[in-house]
Amino acid sequence: MSDYHSHDATGLAELVTKGETTAHELLDMALAETRRLNPALNAVTMLAEDAARAAIEKGLPDGPLKGVPFLLKDLKCEARAYPTNNGSKYFEGHTWAYDSTMFTRIAATGVVSFARTTSPELGVGPVTEAQVYGGPTRNPWNLGRTSGGSSGGSGAAVAAGIVPAAHGSDGGGSVRIPAASCGLVGIKPTRARFPSGPASGEGWAGMAIDGFLTRSLRDNCTLMDAVTGPDLGAPYHAPYMAQSFTDARQTPSRKLKIRYVETTLDGRDIHSECLKAVKETAHILRDLGHDVEAYIPPKSLDVPQMMAAWTITVACGTALAIQNAAKARGEEVDQTQLEGVTRGALAYAKTLTGPDYLNAVNQIHAFGRRMAAEFLACDVLLTITLAEPPCEVGRLKPDNEDFVAYRNGKGGVFDYSPFTAATNASGQPSMSLPLYWSDDHLPIGVHFAMAAGQDAALVSLAAELEVAANWAPMQAKLLAKGGIWPR
After folding, report:
1. Average pLDDT for residues 400-426, to the nearest whole number?
2. What is the torsion angle, in degrees rounded to the nearest 10, for the CA atoms of residue 250, residue 255, residue 257 and residue 259?
3. Is residue 1 pLDDT above 90, yes or no?
4. Burial of 402 (0-12, 13-18, 19+ CB in 10 A)
């Protein structure tokens, strides 16, 4: 169909409902776009066309996105019909014996999943450059730049127009970082808003949660509504939402106390284009009638301590995943199949004790309490999503075997992405919106956080900004250029 790119997922589903196109025809289009764009982007992997066709022939659920092509991240979202690599040569071609609750809820929307999208090994990192895919995943706005991570393949595929929406997950910004890098909507809801089972009760001590990359806010809300709620036996769940995400999108935002930060949360400078994006967003919000003031977070927030604890927790989680796989196979871990950063995580985890891990979790929870206190005097904390525009491919390549230095050292991940992990640690809802592009057409996402449980209010604010800032024309420019910005 000639107007495939002029519709979001909701729009394509409406065409299917009206009989103006079919699920098979939309899948044909998505596969054609994959063949055309993927050689340059390296975003789509583990093609499962047979599973997609079989799902259509069986009869798709009468959900809100019936017939829309969809992509699953190559990490978690376990599904029997969709093997995975988990972003790793060590897990290459792994098959699942069950369907996760997340997958079954996504499938109930009627989407047609036909492949997975690239991820760094076991989801660790703000770039997607895993060796299992034979090269880096690239940003459609500039092929020399990263599309982000860990949901970098989903970000690139949606921005380029292969699909209008894709699955992701977020343990330190892994939905919001690709959203910022690719000019998309990325939302991390309150901790435990979405299911984690049946394989686990939580990810990375409660910091990790699934999510979606979309061009439009309404698509993101539809998908979040479909997966909201605890699954059977969940150890805890998020506060009750009085309205759906979709209803919140249609509810005018109340006047909010918004405090914006012109530096990192611990006072370091950010890129001049990023600072400009924050200030312009603050101006838009002030014009919309909100109470907007500059704000300097207290040093007592101690973000570096949280990041050190985050690093311990994720190193242990990474080591556990690999050790469990080796145990199931009855073999020693072949470290030549692992990225350098992953080898570093294994080595670092070996230096840690059980008390070290529990102390790190306690530090993360203590940080959450400090973050919660920041919202006693305001409704929204406004920052940039990344401290600079999308970085060049190779700059944060996961070959550094010093895991702590890769994360927290000078020029490392924390310098590049100093904001997003804060709300993973605190469990608060947050989002990156595509509100700014640099002079050389690189997307720069703007980040918003609210108190735990305030997901609906966050979405209402997003809806107000979608109208006021109107990011769709910039996304359409990329699609009009064939999905890759010419250089």
Report:
1. 98
2. 60
3. no
4. middle
> Assign residue 120 a region: left if phi > 0, alpha if psi is -120 to 50, beta otherwise?
beta
Per the CB < 8 A criterion, the answer to whether 436 and 390 are in contact is no
pTM: 0.98
How large is the average pLDDT for residues 215-242? Answer: 97
Which amino acid, residue 222? T
Q: What is the DSSP string of 130-143?
A: -GGGTS--EETTEE
Alpha-carbon span 186 to 287, nearest angstrom: 24
The tokens of 143 are what?
């092929």
What helix, strand, coil percent values describe the chain, rounded to 5? 45, 15, 45
How far apart CA 133 and CA 111 sit, in angstroms, is: 25
Percent of the chain topping pLDDT 90: 99
CA–CA gap between residue 29 and residue 403 (Å, rounded): 41
pLDDT of residue 9: 98
Alpha helices in 265-376 (DSSP H): 272-287, 303-329, 340-350, 354-374
Render pLDDT for 324-336 as a digit per residue (tens, 0 to 9).
999 999 999 999 9
DSSP string, 47-62: --HHHHHHHHHH----
Q: 460 Cβ partners below 8 Å, 6+ apart?
A: 248, 249, 251, 252, 253, 254
- According to DSSP, the β-strands at 185-188 and 209-214 are antiparallel
Contact by Cβ (8 Å): 77, 175: no
Structural domains of the chain ordered from first start = 4-480 (3.90.1300.10)
What pLDDT digit, counting tens, does each position of 164-207 carry? 999 999 999 999 999 999 999 999 999 999 999 998 999 999 99
Q: Please name the amino acid found at residue 88.
A: S
